[in-house]
Structure to design on (227 residues):
């Protein structure tokens, strides 16, 4: 099956710092990657969609200048949380698929805690 | 606002019985429907996908789709304690938009 990895699996940072999360497709070329966020006891909420080589499309209410997404290759997308604040603490999960897939495959997630 | 609704539970089912999970969605343009299982602290893993009206079976799992009623369900036969998890219903967004809309999930507990 399709495998997606994320790094780091968890991160603790101070308020005001920036954090970069990597999402990699290990055995397929991901033409599209998605970034989701999940707060405790809540469901996954789509933050943005990125297609390789294009600018990301952000969902309503998600600040594109705060959550920088780069999808520069067919196997790697990065999410940078800039000037992180405690309210950004959440479980960030990426998913990926190629153009032949109906199904998205999820990475293991990154738990972010901003102090 | 496109929504996916699930009963949050918990749904408690004896081991060996059939667990029935339900989901309704509001976007009539949706064409693809998914059930994911999420263990506490982990990311979702795909259980089933379904695209056409009717039933789709895979091992102990059966997904059912009724587009006219905008209703999706998941049946788990011979429930095992390891099936205890939160089950998320996800629907693709219609109208050409990409990405999935998730329900809040149903917490399933299989009692040994």
């Amino acid at each position: 099956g399709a495998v997606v990895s994320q790094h780091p699996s968890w991160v603790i940072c101070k308020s005001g710092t920036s954090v970069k999360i990597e999402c990699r497709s290990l055995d397929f070329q991901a033409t599209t990657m998605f970034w989701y966020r999940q707060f405790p006891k809540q469901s996954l909420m789509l933050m943005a969609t990125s297609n390789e080589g294009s600018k990301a499309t952000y969902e309503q209410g998600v600040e594109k200048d705060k959550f920088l997404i780069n999808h520069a290759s067919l196997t790697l997308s990065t999410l940078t949380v800039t000037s992180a604040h405690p309210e950004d603490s959440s479980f960030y999960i990426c998913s990926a698929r190629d153009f032949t897939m109906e199904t998205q495959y999820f990475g293991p997630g990154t738990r972010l805690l901003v102090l | 606002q496109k929504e996916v609704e699930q009963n949050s539970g918990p749904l408690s089912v004896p081991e060996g019985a059939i667990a029935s999970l339900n989901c309704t969605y509001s976007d009539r343009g949706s064409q693809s429907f998914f059930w994911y299982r999420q263990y506490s602290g982990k990311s979702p893993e795909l259980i089933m996908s379904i695209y056409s009206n009717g039933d789709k079976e895979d091992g102990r799992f059966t997904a059912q789709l009724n587009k006219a009623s905008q209703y999706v369900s998941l049946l788990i036969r011979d429930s095992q304690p390891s099936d205890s998890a939160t089950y998320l219903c996800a629907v693709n967004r219609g109208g050409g938009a990409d990405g999935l809309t998730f329900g809040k999930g149903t917490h399933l507990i299989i009692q040994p």
About this structure: The radius of gyration of chain A is 13 Å. The longest strand of chain A covers residues 90-97.
